[in-house]
Design a protein that fits this description.
Blueprint (H helix, E strand, L loop, with lengths): L1 H21 L13 H12 L5 E5 L5 E4 L8 H15 L3 E6 L17 H7 L7
Antiparallel strand pairs: 1-2, 1-3
């Protein structure tokens, strides 16, 4: 019984360490431009009341949003969401935004058109003129 507890303890410690190390892997720092469909999906994310996280692939083509039950989304949920996005997109994904802030650093003008809801939500336009 003691060896099982020791093994379980080691497993949990390793799992926590791996999760903690991967936490920042979904935070991106590069220019991004959403394609038209992803931009519309982003507006839908902002309009809905039951969404929390918006992930997009590095090409701005594939996107998905998630809901977190807790007030703050856990690192584990963010890692799972990033993994599922990458699996479905076939390329790297990052966290573009939460309901209250843009998380992707140095996105540049990521919206391909003017969006009133993006302006209302984040206070600055993120589109090409």
């Amino acid at each position: 019984m003691k060896t099982i507890l020791v093994k379980l303890s080691v497993f949990c410690t390793l799992l926590f360490a791996v999760t903690a190390c991967q936490t920042a892997s979904f935070l991106k720092d590069e220019p991004l431009t959403l394609n038209f469909n992803a931009a519309q999906h982003f507006e839908e994310f902002l309009e809905r009341k039951d969404t929390s996280l918006f992930f997009v692939d590095d090409y701005g083509a594939y996107s998905v949003y998630y809901y977190c039950r807790e007030t703050r989304c856990t690192a584990t949920l963010k890692n799972t969401a990033a993994y599922e996005c990458q699996r479905d997109a076939g390329s790297e994904c990052g966290l573009l935004a939460t309901k209250h802030s843009i998380q992707w650093k140095n996105t540049g003008n990521f919206m391909p058109y003017k969006s009133e809801i993006v302006y209302q939500t984040y206070g600055s336009y993120f589109y090409d003129e």
